[in-house]
């Protein structure tokens, strides 16, 4: 990749080669396709190790039939509980191995992308993700020890992950778009993000059900590679470097980035408390979304549901579909008329209420009815352009 992208004096760019949304779509598609694939693969491996007769695609195999009819014996119930516990603990480390390095790296992404270019940093994120997905693919094919997955997680974390990619997409869009047009482009970006997440979850259920875990992971790797090819051969750099800069000062600015961010955070300003509140809302929302997504999958695999991969994919796809519809409708109708703090509060209340309702569900209809509430969650929760961002 060539050129730093630091000048702000050149005219804005037009044309399809400045459209970065396909990169985010491919990345979010691959990211969310790997999510259920990895979780159900880990669940399958622990089931195999513990001796629990789990089947992800056959309602008549293993204990699926007994589970659906509530006729599991105590030995199988105990084995299922051990699998659930082992998988839950593994997923804690699974996420920690990517979240910690991702959080650290994202502190430097703004300054680093200014110096080496948005495309270079996008490529770095994608290469790290390819390494992660390839390691998981090799693990699936050869049934390597599960701890080897952590190597890929750490690598993807140092690449910045989904948050890093989203930051780069926003920065690239700001470079090539006039200020008056940015709100429209943000809408396109959110659409690409939600489409990728929704389609991948629907696809994951069918792919795992029909082909097992290998083919979905191959699709994940190919999606990452397609995004790399798009960045390398289609997407043009967003800004040209016209002014030479002192190398020492350039890297000094880079290393001072976390300090500058801290100074901005603690700087005395009007409505400072609102800034802290917004940060708290964003962190809480992201933590809630990721953690619940993981637990929700285990919940669906447990009694009394014991769902197959296809059913898990359908309900998770519906979750993101309703969330995206709520975002599209809410941002258009509710945001201009309701204060942002109230929208945020309503969003959290609806989200919590939905999961409380789902926690007491006893059948498939109850689960889908609970997800309807996510239409009202979208305006802020999980939405990059929502109230907390403002």
From TrEMBL:
It is a multi-pass membrane protein. The chain crosses the membrane at residues 92-112, 124-142, 148-174, 186-203, 215-235, 274-301, 313-334, 341-360. GO terms for molecular function: transmembrane transporter activity. Coiled coil: none annotated. It comes from the Eukaryota. InterPro entries: MFS, MFS_trans_sf. GO terms for cellular component: membrane. Keywords: Membrane, Transmembrane, Transmembrane helix. It is found in: Membrane. This is Proton-coupled folate transporter.
